Amino acid sequence: MGRIKILPSSVADQIAAGEVIERPASVVKELVENSLDAGATEIVVELEEGGRSLVRVSDDGVGMDRSDALLSLDRHATSKISSASDLIGVASYGFRGEALPAIASVCLFELETAAAKGQREAGTRVSARAGRVETAEPTARSRGTTVTVRRLFYNTPARRKFLRSQRSETRASIQALTVLALTRLDVSFKLISDSRVLVDAPRVSGVADRIASLVGANTAEGLLPVDYATGAMSVRGYVPRPADAKASGRKALLCVNGRPFKDPFLVRAAENGYRATIPADVRPTVFLSLGLPGDRVDVNVHPAKLEVRFRDRMLVERAVEEAVRQALRPLEAAAVVGWSVPPSADRRWTPETPWRGAGTADRPVAGSADLLPDSDSPFVRASRVPGQQLLQVFNTYIVFETPDGVTIVDQHSAHERVLYERAMLELTGQNGSSQRLLLPLTIDLEPAELDVVDSHRELLSSIGYEVEGFGGRSVVLHAVPNPHPRFDARRCFEELVADLTHNRLEGLNQMERFAATYACKAAIKAGHELDQEEMHNLLTRLFACQLPPHDVHGRPTMVQLPKHELERRFGRS
User: Fold this and answer.
1) Count H helices, E strands: the chain?
2) Is 196 in the same domain as 213?
3) In angstroms, rounded to a whole number, what is the distance separating the alpha carbons of residues 324 and 220?
4) What confidence score (pLDDT) does residue 342 get?
5) Are residues 153 and 211 in the same domain?
6) Neighbours of 176 (CB within 10 A)
7) What CATH number did the domain enclosing 448 receive?
8) Element (H, E) at 427
9) Quick one: 64 and 137 in the same domain?
10) d(Cα 560, Cα 407) in Å, to the nearest integer?
11) Measured on CA atoms in the order 116, 121, 122, 124, is the torsion positive or negative?
């Protein structure tokens, strides 16, 4: 008896602080969210020693009077909700009433606030140590609130030891502020670290402008707009061209109904949208904003509100994947020489901005050699290819004019994309086109290769190879694929079998890897001379694909040379 007891409030507050406040960046996140909820239009964050010595957040929001200022340091004191039903679709960033008391319990805390609208009206200054209020006195200040946090975790030295280097902690605070800055374009944000301005994001009217101020104009100019809707859900934002995606330095910034959150499964869904356009080790940066009815997402599942729960997660993941995939379809997604857009172009994204894509969510991929694209396709309209004279250079590239410049197509990569999408249709149930041979081909194989052919006979048949054992170490090909007149059926078969034998195509997406390998080996090569009819046929089939601008290895099928770039280089701009 007597083993169960109630924890002292000071200990309970420190336990709560451990759930909400992990590092200085957590303080920045919670205080900036409070400022946004207070209607601030200007927010300034100051750090010293990465936040170890000082975190100060100042805003011009509505502020508080003396009684509210004192009450705000009590646990679960909040102005956002009053009953459990208010949690459904809650729109404010904060609502638990835990941030301020949790922060105050592990630092030297000071709150200055004023609710009056005058310039230097009476305000309130509250000082606390380890969560205990020491002084509350009047002060003169303009409307708004300033929270100063000194010596974070001074009274919990074990937790202070777990803080990382000053550079790492500063970078984490910048990341926390960046995510919030992307959700509120109507607010200006500034972060000052040891007297150096590291973030300066003034109010803007478009997401692209805010991205440019946060991650750089060059990065922002290379991004593609995402604008997709299905039912009551929308997915908007920006993603990079596959040609610009890198294996390092990825950023994944997500928000739902204006609330930032983390979700590795949605990031993976976005990466799936790049499937068969980038190498497996590349992780593209994504800036995505999800819109959902409030009753379809639960934001009250994590102490620091870093995670959310969706009522229909599969629907959300499919929507994110398709949204990214649609953004990669139009001509604008092709790689660009020089600037991606003219300096004067208006790249602002607003909810009313229409999506300029090359198809719809249910648009099928090209399947057969004689399949023509929709004549009303934005991709076909932009290319001017039908009836246009084409130029082949170096027996490798096809050049043609577009309304905004010149497009250069890599004939091998383009044909690779065409064959890959056709092979995927054939591998998933449609009959592959093949050519029966008047004189069958006899091929000698190693014993391990014979086993592979026997176990993958259906896979090989789906793309057009009809294989029969011939006794001993030989097989006979009675029919082969017919992708183009110069196709070397024997060599392609031998290389596919070798890859299968050495497990080069093993993995979660073996079918996709097999299709990509076949497409690469079967496509016309650099150095093959093409006549006008062959070039027109190739481009027509390319434009009918789902993702025309990209091959299956992360390389572009085409490069745009914008007219404004030509004019700039010739001194005409």
Assistant:
1) 18, 23
2) no
3) 16
4) 39
5) no
6) 23
7) 3.30.1370.100
8) helix 411-427
9) yes
10) 5
11) positive
Angle at the Cα of 231 (from 88 to 331), degrees rounded to 5? 125
Q: What is the CATH number of the domain that holds 295?
A: 3.30.230.10
Spatial separation of the C-alpha atoms in residues 295 and 88, rounded to whole Å: 6
Phi then psi for residue 364, to 5 deg, are -75, 160
pLDDT tens digits for 19-43?
678 899 999 999 999 999 999 999 9
Identify which has the larger pLDDT, 228 or 386: 228
Q: What is the CATH number of the domain that holds 143?
A: 3.30.565.10
For 76, other C-beta atoms within 10 Å of its C-beta total 9
Identify the residue whose tokens are 């084409």.
390
Both 79 and 96 in one domain: the answer is yes
38 within a domain of the structure (yes/no):
yes
- Identify whether 291 is part of a domain: yes
CA nearest to 550, candidates 278, 284, 364, 240: 278
Inter-residue contact 125 to 137 (CB < 8 Å): yes
* CA pseudo-torsion sign 249, 255, 260, 261: negative
pTM: 0.76
**Which residues of 244-325 form beta strands (DSSP E)?**
252-256, 259-261, 286-291, 297-298, 309-310
> Over 156-201, what HEC string results?
CHHHHHCCCCHHHHHHHHHHHHHHHHHHCCCCEEEEEECCEEEEEE
Same domain, 184 and 227: no
- Angle among Cα 363, 367, 368 to the nearest 5 degrees reads 140
Q: Which of 179, 201, 223 is the last residue of a domain?
A: 201
Q: Which domain holds residue 183?
A: 9-201
The count of structural domains within the chain is 3
Structural domain includes residue 401:
no
Q: How far apart are the first and last CA of the chain?
A: 87
Compute how many other C-beta atoms are within 10 angstroms of the C-beta atom of residue 430: 13
Amino acid at 478: H
At 364, which amino acid appears? P
Residue where a domain stops, chosen among 152, 176, 201: 201
Q: HSE of 83 in the Cβ direction (CA atoms, 13 Å)?
A: 1
Q: Do 79 and 65 share a structural domain?
A: yes
- Residues 508 and 492 both lie in one domain: yes
> Who has greater pLDDT, 345 or 292?
292
Q: Are residues 225 and 179 in the same domain?
A: no
Q: What is the DSSP string of 328-344?
A: TSSGGGSEESS-SS-TT
Summarize pLDDT for 426-468 with one digit per residue, the tens: 887 766 678 899 899 999 999 999 999 999 988 898 888 999 9
Q: Look at residue 472 and tell me if it is in a domain.
A: yes
The residue type found at 255 is: C
Is 465:434 a contact under the CB 8 Å cutoff? yes
Q: How far apart are CA 126 and CA 121, in angstroms?
A: 16
Cα-based angle 106, 110, 116 (whole degrees, multiple of 5): 140
Which value, to the nearest 10 degrees, does the dihedral of the CA atoms of residues 28, 30, 36, 40 take? -50
